[in-house]
Amino acid sequence: MSSILFIGGGNMASCIIGGMIANGFNADNIMVSEPGEESRQRLEKTYGIKTMADNQAAARQADLIVLAVKPQIMRAVATDLALTLDHRPAMVSIAAGIPLSALENWLGNSAAIVRAMPNTPAMVLSGATGLFANPQVKAEQKAIVEKIFSAIGYACWVDTETQIDAVIAVSGSGPAYFFRIMEIMQKVGQELGLPEQIARDLSLKTVLGAARMATESGTSATQLREQVTSPGGTTQAALQSFEQQNLEDVFRKAMNSALERAEVMSADFGSATK
Ligand SMILES: NC(=O)c1ccc[n+]([C@@H]2O[C@H](COP(=O)([O-])OP(=O)(O)OC[C@H]3O[C@@H](n4cnc5c(N)ncnc54)[C@H](OP(=O)(O)O)[C@@H]3O)[C@@H](O)[C@H]2O)c1
Fold first, then answer.
1. pLDDT tens by residue, 16-27
2. Which one of 65, 69, 119 would you pick to mutate in the ligand 1 pocket, going by the greatest count of ligand atoms within 8 A of its CB?
3. How far apart are the C-alpha atoms of 259 and 252, rounded to whole Å?
4. 4-168: CATH, from 3.30.1660.10, 3.40.50.720, 1.10.730.10, 3.30.1450.10
5. Assessment of whether the complete model's pTM goes beyond 0.70
6. CA 180 to each of CA 36, 170, 174, 176, 249: distance values in angstroms, whole numbers, following the listed order
């Protein structure tokens, strides 16, 4: 079994490790390198894993290294680690907005690197992660990476790095789109006369129920929508109002804004390495 090291033991690392242990990964094969003593003690106590405070010493023992630090310190962490990668572990970056070109510059051009883009529902093991690997990553390394991210929800590979920006626009930023919809449904529910708690619960359960139906029924979202839209009924009245205001265009513009922002962030990090 591969030895898996997390550099940085914060929110995202904790949630991935929690998912891994819940899905049968052996705690003996998971390690975290993290400067905060309190965080190290919490991780050891909660998950029974080993922790260290020295990134380089930890990296020497690892077959696969997940870089789970904030993007702004990634360059310093990666260039320091580059001095200890002679045994060629697979590297996985979960940092939003840092392109492969920057990671390759910092870690070495021959490094096997995966860019992973998880989202926040990973915290409740219902995440959605897009993965992209450079050609140096071997099939067996890809299989372990996929198993790690499948432990916190759904994981899929994309064919080009550009598609990672699209992943950011769909699933990376996506949870917030639905949080906004929940807020609006709750607010309008109250305006229509429902008590706050009931408006909130009905809105949340409706989004959850619709998502479960769409994922579990094997029926397309289009068919499900058509099935609940009787001619002349209430749902049709609401959907017609969406169409009149071009809801599709509203979403297209919003998701393109997310995509453009991701492209700018990648370009900024890319140029900062030159
Ligand atoms: N949170 C999300 O939903 C989410 C989603 C997708 C991607 N990501 C990406 O995941 C990464 C981590 O995010 P996060 O939310 O987990 O951040 P976080 O909670 O701040 O975790 C980062 C951890 O790294 C530690 N650290 C700082 N300097 C270090 C060093 N030199 N060596 C090793 N560890 C060091 C920090 O310790 P101290 O606190 O002691 O400084 C902290 O525990 C980011 O790159 C982010 O873009 C996050």
1. 999 999 999 999
2. 69
3. 10
4. 3.40.50.720
5. yes
6. 34, 15, 10, 6, 17
